[in-house]
Amino acid sequence: MELSKKSWLVAGIIPGVEREPLKKLAADQNELLKLIERWRAEAEKAGHKITRIAVAFETGRDGFWLARWLRARGIEAHVIHAASVPVPREHRRAKTDRLDTQLLKRAFLGWLRGERDHCKMAAIPTFAEEDARRPHRERDTLVGEHTTIINRIKATLARLGIRDFNPTLKEAPKRLEHLCTPEGEPIPPNTLCELKRDFARKQFVAEQIQQIEKARLEQLKQAPKTRPNLMVLVLMRVIGIGIETADMLVKEILSRNLRDRRAVARYGGLTGSPDESGSQRREQGLARSGNARVRKGMIQLAWRFLEFQKESALAKWFEVRTKNARTSRKKMIVALARKLLIALWHLVRDGIVPEGVVLRPAH
Q: What is the pLDDT of residues 294-309, one digit of tens each?
């Protein structure tokens, strides 16, 4: 299936039917179900009893709700990682929804045969798991908006020559009326109204951030022994990890049922992308095929870990390898982030404390 906002293009392979049908539907799940049942009837009319129906579409704007809806009706649904489907590498290749469905069919058939390299499938989260990620993701968005508003206020004041005003202070809105430009003039009326609106917006966003943080603390307090909350509390015992980082890691990666340590690093986007051809050997950097939030958070945490856990085995490992090559610290911090992520995964799953890591007292 090729999904878009207003329509869905459905391509099928039906046993006993020589043609490969292609049908464009309105974006309606009930119409899709009717189409699938009609194609099932055609296959049974041709003498093939259908016991398994498999449907696949790419990750995108629609998320996972359709896959859950189809599975609830006995249809095997899969969500393909969009970047994992190989495409022709011509400079100007034809690209239409019809051609895309043909590529998806070939990749999906190969995957169903057991050839896993044809494409990669995304794990379909439950409704509750998907909803659990919303608070910290919304908070990240609000923090970005808050920073944007502060920068806009600073830019507005700098345009008037006012550079010693801190808009993050509690009394900053009240001081606007008394500010003067270097020429001794007060802030112009239209600019003053704009600044007041920006401060009101800043206050509103800050209150929303506080609401999310308060609700999270209440949830931890009310159900501390549920699996995700217990993982958050365990991570918070590690000195250098706060509630924001712990909550993000648990909701994004550590609560997932990952197979082994390699799967953990791969999902975190902390694996390399080598380029080897003949005698040429070079590293292209991070693959960036995993979770961007986890990758960014772990690299930030790795730098913080070096400050708060200097006696740990991981910090000493890092210092030994960068002692005589200071320029390699930025590259090696990625390796440290990968090792640290795997260590934290073992901590919340098996209770194994990383060697030398100092923990806060348990409450």
A: 999 999 999 999 999 9
